[in-house]
């Protein structure tokens, strides 16, 4: 009986080892930052501002055609405002200051995928977003497209982020209740388009 139990345990150990040892390696696709883009929008009581910020790097990992993992890094020092295609360097400077993203101390932000639900074109992505050294989990829908040139496009049209969770409290009505109509909404949105290739 003891011999049978030992043999069973050995078989289980070998089976477990084989499973992990021969697990298929994910295909890594590097993000082409020249073809990728991040756009943002922030709203206040009296209007809104839109703009862009540049990617530094990124990668997407696939098991077959299923997104399994990935990450990207954003260069926060490149944040730009483009309201009706008109630049606003004064606002750009304020967004880079400590009131907002504090880019002197925190020049980059990053996102790391932790979970992907669904397969094929439409998926739900959950991951860790780090801004100003603070990390929070966010979830959002995304669309995966396999292009004719063998590249992959991953697009998330609307990602909603509560800036106060990252220590950005400037003119937040939830923080400063007596601010009246001179407030900026806590939530800002951004869209991400990643184009990646092996």
Can you describe what's shown?
The chain is mostly beta strands and 198 residues long. The protein is 14% helix and 55% strand. The chain has 2 helices and 10 strands. The protein has helices at 2-21, 89-96, and strands at 27-31, 37-44, 47-63, 66-83, 86-87, 108-117, 122-131, 134-146, 152-162, 184-197. Strands 1, 2, 3, 4, 5, 6, 7, 8, 9 and 10 form a 10-stranded antiparallel beta sheet that branches. A hairpin with a 2-residue loop joins β4 and β5 (86-87). The radius of gyration is 22 Å and the shape is elongated.
Total beta-strand segments: 10
Order of helices and strands: HEEEEEHEEEEE
**Alpha carbon gyration radius:** 22 Å
Please give the largest β-sheet: 10 strands, antiparallel
Please, how many helices?
2
| Termini separation | 53 Å
| Mean pLDDT reading | 90
Q: Per the principal axes of the C-alpha atoms, what is the gross shape? A: elongated
Class per helix and strand makeup: mainly beta
Percent of sequence in beta strands: over 45%
Low-pLDDT residue intervals, each spanning 5 or more residues: 2-6, 13-21
